[in-house]
Write a structure and sequence with these properties.
The chain has 246 residues and is α+β, with helices and mostly antiparallel strands. The chain has one domain. The chain has 3 helices and 11 strands, in the order H-H-H-E-E-E-E-E-E-E-E-E-E-E. An 11-stranded antiparallel beta sheet has the order 1-2-3-4-5-6-7-8-9-10-11. Strand 2 and strand 3 form a beta hairpin. The protein starts with a helix and ends with a strand.
Length: 246
């Protein structure tokens, strides 16, 4: 009888050790996938979710107007805008924006424009929905007539809640930071022709912990941008926010 009891105890101990080793080698549960992080970036870039493409268009439009405004040097202009999607649009959004524009001059002529913004709102796309607020600071250079393009440097920030539509268990809070370098916008069409950016995404999912993603972005000049996020490459449509793996 003693031998049987000892054997049972030994088996239990072996099982416990094996279970511990097995648990130690299992991969951690993912709280946000690479694709979901890419969706967050896409939502922070596209026109129909009040992303960088929309805000750079606002900044370049105001720069174009200021070029022909007499006595614009040093002036500060404020503006409030409300934006909503149209009925039936595949992506729904609603945003309130508060802008401030400051004109810098060279030899008495408008040379650059400082655009600062705070905003709040929400959007809902095919893969992700988000309620958020944030800010941007853009310096728009190239206002003088001899330049054919505007060149924008600055930073875009977005923070708030998110919910994945691919996996409803993936929901929580996120912070997105996009540092823009030499975003070039053609004056005549106000379309993005080139530029790059550094991407940082952090956040947390209840009961699953925090997450961090970093990446780079290249604006391709054809209405898309190439996102490299934790080594995975995506093409993002700057108008619709659609993304696909390369």
């Amino acid at each position: 009888m003693k031998k049987i009891k000892l054997s049972l105890v030994a088996m239990l101990l072996i099982g416990a050790v094996a279970c511990k080793k097995s648990n130690g080698t299992l991969p951690p549960v993912s709280n946000v996938t690479n694709d979901e992080a890419a969706d967050m970036v896409a939502g922070s870039l596209s026109l129909n979710s009040n992303g960088v493409a929309s805000l750079s268009a606002d900044a370049s439009l105001n720069a174009a107007v200021i070029i022909n405004t007499p006595g614009a040097c040093g002036t500060i202009r404020s503006d409030s805008i409300s934006r909503q999607s149209k009925p039936g649009d595949p992506v729904t959004y609603n945003y309130n924006l508060k802008y401030s524009f400051t004109v810098n001059c060279d030899g008495g002529r408008p040379d650059s424009l400082l655009s600062t913004l705070t905003y709040s709102g929400s959007f809902s796309g095919p893969n992700l929905s988000s309620s958020n607020s944030g800010s941007s600071v853009f310096m728009v250079n190239g206002l003088l007539p001899r330049f054919t393009d505007f060149v924008i440097n600055g930073e875009f920030k977005r923070a708030g809640s998110f919910s994945s539509k691919i996996d409803t268990a993936h929901h929580g809070n996120s912070n997105i930071d996009i540092v823009i370098n030499s975003l070039t916008v053609e004056k005549s069409s106000r379309t993005i022709v080139s530029g790059n950016a550094a991407i940082s995404i952090t956040g947390d999912v209840p009961k699953k912990g925090s997450f961090t993603y970093t990446g780079t972005l290249v604006f391709n000049g054809n209405g898309t941008a190439t996102l490299t996020l934790n080594g995975t490459v995506y093409i993002i449509n700057l108008e619709s926010g659609d993304r696909r793996r390369v």
